[in-house]
Amino acid sequence: MSELHVVLGATGAIGSAVVAELTARGHRVRAVSRGPATGPDGFQADVTTTEGAIAACEGAAVVYQCAQPRYERWAEEFPGLIRPILTGVEAAGAKLVMADNLYVYGPVEGPMTEGLPHAAANPKGRVRAEVDGMILDAHRSGRLRATLGRASDYYGPGGVNTVIGPNVFAAALAGRTVRWVGDLDQPHTLAYLPDIAAGLVTLGESAEADGRAWHLPAAEAITGRRFLDLVRAEAGGGPKVAGLGRGAQRLIGLFNPTVRGLGETWYQRDRPFVADDTAFREAFGPVKVTPHAEGVAATLDWYRRDAA
């Protein structure tokens, strides 16, 4: 029997993409979610509890940690989520692959590499650094094997809880103004969900990935204006495009906690925000990533079909 790969947070955007990638590669999968299990691979467990995490991870060779608290609750809840998961992975004798992001670095000059210090001063960046430290400390102490795959803002089929979801794709299909959060003319690394999943699974399959963080491969950085042009063209044109600036973010944030939370990381949106994925490509290449035009077309198709 093939090794078991367990996906925590399997009904979320990244988790469901990882399940699809593992299945395509022929792996045996357990898709763990907090809600009722669906499908032949589904498994219900509350991994915020030690008992639930141990049950979810039992028998696993690799565990992909794709679950997370609500965005506005990261600082309060993320460490408490990770502790039982570490216990569950350790009990199973498994390897942990963490679906991570770029918040740990804080404001930087130039492209981000994995060697940058974890200098974020805002609460969300600090808690992500704390969580990463917990995971890598567990690896260094021999409790378990672990690796982290970091990605920037994502889009793709199933990507609805993101600033590049309904505000862009659903709006374009409805003929509404398509809004980019931040400066329209700053280059920004955007990750396509199936590419994130492919990178995470490669880390899960590769022993040489263990013990460090990696920037997952993505297509070239693109400005918001150029990205929205691709969306408008694929959607048939028509909708206006606009940037949502700091003032509008503050106003909307008065009654929307998710938008309010964007304020503490506005440096990701008013200047270049570019991830360097050279290390991953050199270690695990050749790597194929999805061109933005192809990713936009597939995402719009999904919104037409499944997000109505």
Please outline the major beta sheet: 7 strands, parallel
- The percent of residues in helical segments reads 40-55%
Series of secondary-structure elements, N-terminal to C-terminal: EHEEHEHEHEEHEEEHEEHEHHHH
Cα distance, first to last residue?
Answer: 40 Å
CATH architecture of the domain at 4-152 and 191-217: 3-Layer(aba) Sandwich
Give a written overview of the molecule.
- Pfam families: Epimerase (PF01370).
- Residues 6-209 form the NAD-dependent epimerase/dehydratase domain.
- The protein is of the alpha/beta class.
- It has a domain at 4-152 and 191-217: Rossmann fold, CATH 3.40.50.720.
- The protein is 41% helix and 17% strand.
- The protein is built from eleven helices and 13 strands.
- It has a seven-stranded parallel beta sheet, with helices on both faces. Strands 7-10 form a two-stranded parallel sheet.
- α3 (74-92) links the parallel β4 (60-65) and β5 (95-101).
- The longest helix is centred in the N-terminal third of the chain and has 19 residues, at 74-92.
- The protein is globular, with a radius of gyration of 19 Å.
